Amino acid sequence: MTAALAARGPDGDGFHVAPGVGLGHRRLAVIDVAGGRQPLHSEDGQVTAIVNGELYNFRQLRATLERAGHRFATACDAEVVVHGYEEWGDGVLGHLQGMFALAVWDARRRRLLLARDRMGEKPLYWATLPGGGLAFSSELKSLCHAPGVDTALDPGSLARYLVHECVPAPRSILRGVCKLAPGTRLVVEAGAAPVVSTFWDLSFSEGPRITNEEEGARLLLGELRRSVRERLISDVPLGVFLSGGVDSSAVAALAAEVRGGDLDTFTIGFDDPAFDESAAAARVARFIGSRHHEQRLTAASVSDALVGVGSLLDEPLGDASIIPTHLLARFARNTATVCLGGDGGDDLFGGYPTFAAEPLAKLLFDRAPGAGRAAAALAKGVSALLPSSGGYLPLEFKLKQFFRASNGGAGRRHQAWMASFLPTEALAVLAPDVRNMVIATGANLYDVVDARWDSGPGRLESDRLLCHYVKGYLAEDLLPKLDRATMAVGLEARSPLLAEGVVSLACRLAPSLRQRAFPTKHILKRALRGLLPDETLHRKKQGFAMPIGRWLAGPLRPFMEDTLSPRALRDCGLFDPAPIRRLVDEHLQGRSDNRKPLWTLLAFMRWHEAWRSRPS
Questions:
Q1: Do residues 172 and 287 both lie within one domain?
Q2: Are 316 and 420 in contact (CB under 8 A)?
Q3: What pLDDT, in 10s, does the model give residues 281-321?
Q4: Fewer CB within a 10 Å sphere, N or C end of the chain?
């Protein structure tokens, strides 16, 4: 199991084996490089812990625990988990600030505690075993070396993957494996079934709402400064992923404040100007005085990366930006072992184009559905006349995405806007027997969306939208993508915008400050005024994406044609080749920009091929 995680932890392994328990750990040495080997033990050897991730407040916790009489054997951040558990029990989770997946074995009580960090930056899979055992790991390919894990593919999870471009927790793509959701713990004791519970959640009721823009910007900047400073702690070389957008530029500028000119920044450029942000990144790097490193990607370099994309994914993920993210991480790893990034800003502060689209959607679909249906029919005719350009969010693509989500309320609407397939479309591309199995279960493929919207912690619609994106797109897509892309090359990625202080402040902001259609992320840009060039703050929003639509119709066409050929689809046994062929033909002929559904299918097929050929 640990050998399968060697890429995540290239600096050594460690084991604790005792009656009824076995813990294994692969280490990426970042703090206390010489002495921080895991597992870690209490003074009497009765408590043992392994941790994946970083605990940014470990020095403060260590001082508190030492005053309480605990003796530390290392300078490693993870050791506070052992002594914190001795002092506070499961309450230690509330004290930890950072990203982590952890396990604590309490030998006296014959008790295992598993937990995953608040935002879901680190993954944690688990499975029950025949005879009452339990196995867990950071990755599926590791977990499935544990004897007795049910590794059959789950048809319901496959259908949800097509709808969400990922498999939302607590499910996984495999029938016998679950994922811990962010902010949850699992406890198992001898003779008892595992119990999963929540130790942290988003809260919109902690203190009065912040309504003053100047106060909100000041408090936000303070939290960002604190978070970046904490995440600069490292005993190994550190840098920043810099795209040139507001979020990563903010992190880079604040890191440069602390480190002066001693900062490396890394960016990826594309030959296609519609997707290239390298000039914007270079401009920010000059402004903050960092040592800037740039690599340009071509279709040929991406084609080479596609050979191993199935193993990189570990679990299917329909986000094509995992490829440039992985190549950026591989490039940065030549210089740094740790990189900070800007993940989370769009989710917390309403930065996606979907937030700007919501007021119009509410008017057309909720308040005047008749007008909405007429507009949808007109838009469908207009978009059919527009040739597919393959550019970054072209007009025909935006029209199609906007009007395909005309039913079901705001939660389902936002899910449909971001997705490759609607539920009916997902069922249509499945093989008939697989489709029938999914239908027979009565599955609601929007079940997690409905649960987040109807029973989440927020009551105002703006709070529900924040919850929807943070618990959905961020936790289930962006953060797994970042973890897999970076840890595959032994590089640790840290996200300062996901610090609890930043997240809690975002939840306290009045809706008028947090989410505005124009300009988006207004409060964040207000907080950063003077720290970044005005040109950076007022740039048009652009996500980190590669020109996959154009490349699939051009240099990557052989890859697509081979992976989605009728022969390959029939051999897979899970899909109906005919509707997928129509998607391919429409895209190649320029009649429809099908980049999203095609990549989602391609990613699954590459994963499935790698999964079937994995060593037993």
A1: no
A2: no
A3: 999 999 999 999 999 988 888 888 888 888 899 999 999 99
A4: C
